[in-house]
Amino acid sequence: MTGLTLYVRSRQVPAALGAAVAGTAIAWLLATAFSVEGEVSSTVLALTVLLLVAVATTTLGGPDDTLDRTAARPWGGLRMSHLATALGCVLMLLLATLLTGTRFGPFGCVVRDAAGLLGLTALGTATVGTARSWFLPLGWTLGAAVFPGMGTAGEALTWQTQAADSRPAAVVAAVLTAAGTAAYVSRGPRTTAGDP
Predict the structure, then answer these.
(1) In this predicted model, what pLDDT tens digit does every residue of 78-118 receive, in sequence order?
(2) CA–CA distance, 33 with 25 (Å, rounded to integer)
(3) The pTM of the whole model exceeds 0.85
(4) CA–CA separation, 80 vs 37, rounded Å?
(5) What is the DSSP letter of 69?
(6) What does the alpha-carbon distance between residue 38 and residue 85 come to, in Å, rounded to a whole number?
(7) pLDDT above 70 as % of the chain
(8) Cβ atoms 57, 159 nearer than 8 A
(9) Residue closest to 151 by CA, chosen among 171, 134, 167
(10) Helical residues (DSSP H) of the chain, grouped into ranges
(11) In terms of C-beta density within 10 A (0-12 exposed, 13-18 middle, 19 or more buried), how is residue 196 classed?
């Protein structure tokens, strides 16, 4: 058994991938049943991306996060590859619906929401631990779904549900992606006992 296979199994990647496929299928079926054909609303898109990112979050830490602090493996490159693969899986699942009558789009919103929410949860993993890392993405996205923002500040605060051409939303998502990636790649998941 190779090191990569052990890494994937220790992060429960097969189970998370199965849950992501099932979640996407259920969201697509519900959207197909309860809406007219075409692109889903920005709120439905954001909540579906949130679901997939929450599933991906479970793979950001292993059974013993202290092992991620050892120098035995090139953790930085592995973590960067892990985030890129998780983002790619979320994008592929949602962009596959563009071939159907009920689509999770537009493409720009899918990329922005997936990258921003994954960055936010990666930032949470590095700062508060994997188990609690999805709290802020969940609360922030639910707030954005309930209270639509207007104006520059409003678009920035509710970036998940804004139109694809919203510059404030794109900036917030880019900042969260960069900050989350940098924190997770450099530090890894916070241990349950906390950092020294």
Answers:
(1) 899 999 999 999 999 999 998 898 999 889 999 999 999 99
(2) 12
(3) yes
(4) 37
(5) G
(6) 28
(7) 95
(8) no
(9) 167
(10) 3-10, 13-34, 42-57, 75-95, 107-128, 135-146, 151-157, 167-187
(11) exposed
Three-class secondary structure of residue 39 per DSSP = strand
Query: Residue 102, SS3?
Result: strand
CA distance 5 to 7: 5
Helix axis angle for 42-57 and 75-95, nearest 10°, is 150
Question: Residue 82's closest CA among 94, 93, 74?
Answer: 74
φ/ψ (deg, to 5) at 165: -95, 10
Q: CB of 126 within 8 A of CB of 79?
A: no
pLDDT of 192 above 70: no
Of 75, 81, 84, the C-alpha closest to 187 is: 75
Q: How many residues does the chain have?
A: 196
Tokens 């979320």, residue located = 90
